[in-house]
Amino acid sequence: MNGLDVAALVLILIGALLCLTAAIGVVRFKDVPTRLHAATKPQVLGLILICLAIALSLRSWPVVAFLVPVVLIQLATAPLSAHMVGRQAYRNRTIDEKSLYVDERAQARERERRRDEG
Fold first, then answer.
1. In the chain, how many domains are there?
2. What pLDDT, on a 0 to 100 scale, did the predictor assign at position 93?
3. 26: Cβ contacts below 8 Å, ≥ 6 apart
4. What is the number of other CB atoms lying within 10 angstroms of the CB of residue 55?
5. What are the angstrom distances between the C-alpha of 60 and each of 17, 32, 52?
6. Is the distance from CB of 67 to CB of 51 less than 8 angstroms?
7. Span 107-117, average pLDDT
8. Quick check: 32 and 94 in contact, CB under 8 A?
9. What is the pLDDT of residue 46?
């Protein structure tokens, strides 16, 4: 086992742990925003690390050419799907609005800006 194989092994282990924590977070968290956070951020990073480990392990340009679109598609679709799920949960009023943070200062600035414009 050379250094690249050890690095690939470590990356696969870290990526698998991140994907596992994402799955546990989706099951254990109670509301939609925290579940979305768990479903997107660690899962995407875990997939990227696993793809990087595969590329290091196989050391082949066709493999890298296959993995790059996989990562790019994941980076494009995970935030989009999380946004759509969050938006639908907000519209259905299935989000606990008491747990959401409201920035009163930003709202006051926005009201002031609108008042100045109109």
1. 1
2. 82
3. 35, 38, 39
4. 20
5. 25, 40, 12
6. yes
7. 86
8. yes
9. 95
CB atoms within 10 A of CB 45: 15
Spatial distance between the Cα atoms of 52 and 24, rounded to a whole number of angstroms: 23
Q: Within 10 Å of residue 39's Cβ, how many Cβ atoms? A: 19
The pLDDT value recorded for residue 102 is 73
Q: Is residue 79's pLDDT more than 80?
A: yes
CA torsion, ordered 100, 101, 104, 106, to nearest 10 deg: -110
Residues in the chain: 118
Task: Outline where 1-118 has alpha helix (H).
Answer: 3-28, 32-58, 61-91, 104-117
- Among all chains, which residue has been given the structure tokens 């299935």? 94
The whole-angstrom separation of Cα 39 and Cα 21 is 9
Q: What CATH number is attached to the domain comprising 61?
A: 1.10.287
Average pLDDT value for the chain:
89
Which residues span the domain enclosing 43?
3-117
Q: 9-64: per-residue pLDDT in tens?
A: 999 999 999 999 999 999 998 888 888 888 888 999 999 999 999 999 999 999 99
